[in-house]
Design goal:
By secondary structure, the protein is mostly beta strands. It contains no helices and 18 strands.
């Protein structure tokens, strides 16, 4: 806070001074910016940016060789790893602020499975399903196409599924990742 004084001198050399305490208040220019972390590869996130002065001009360094001058850019990383994100901001008056953030990027999960067909005349048609999904995820939901479904957090669990009749069955495996997204794969099991 600053006190301002104004002095006026007239033709007769008389001076009048007016002083006002706390007439000028200057707030420090501050930038608040963040990007969700952790995030998955090839998942796009938008930077959350706020400041006590607008407009502002930003220069981003995503930590992987890419840059942007957009105030709140969309960000994605094609490869897993740890990235040092930084942004430098300037307001119209030339005041500057900056911030840094470490972004952890995990491999996006990929849903996949195999089906091992083993037929017997005694028991009917059985198919052994095995999860081959990759990446970070916490649960799997199976739909075997015959009305039977299973949900599990056991990534190594196999399922021996019995099919009463021959035919084509659409089998779906949906994996749920830690950011709330689901990725699924569908394959046709011909019995």
């Amino acid at each position: 806070d600053y006190t301002v004084s104004l002095s006026v001198r007239d033709m007769n050399n008389c001076v009048t001074t007016k002083t006002k305490a706390n007439a000028v208040k200057i707030e420090k220019f501050t930038l608040n910016a963040s990007v969700p972390s952790p995030m998955c590869t090839n998942t796009t996130a938008t930077a959350n940016v706020s400041s006590n002065y607008f407009p502002i001009f930003c220069n981003w360094d995503f930590g992987d060789g890419r840059t942007s001058s957009v105030v709140a850019p969309s960000i994605n990383y094609p490869s897993p790893g740890t990235y040092n994100l930084s942004v430098k901001a300037t307001n119209l008056e030339g005041c500057r602020d900056s911030m840094q953030q470490t972004i952890v990027v995990n491999q996006a999960p990929v849903a996949d499975f195999t089906a091992d067909f083993h037929f017997t005349f005694k028991d009917g048609n059985h198919v052994l399903y095995e999860n081959l999904s990759q990446g970070e995820y916490y649960s799997l939901t199976w739909n075997f196409g015959n009305g039977q479904t299973e949900t599990t957090t056991d990534k190594k669990k196999t399922f021996d599924i019995y099919y009463i009749e021959a035919g084509d069955y659409e089998v779906t495996l949906k994996i749920n990742n830690y950011t709330g997204e689901s990725i699924e794969v569908k394959k046709v099991a011909s019995i």
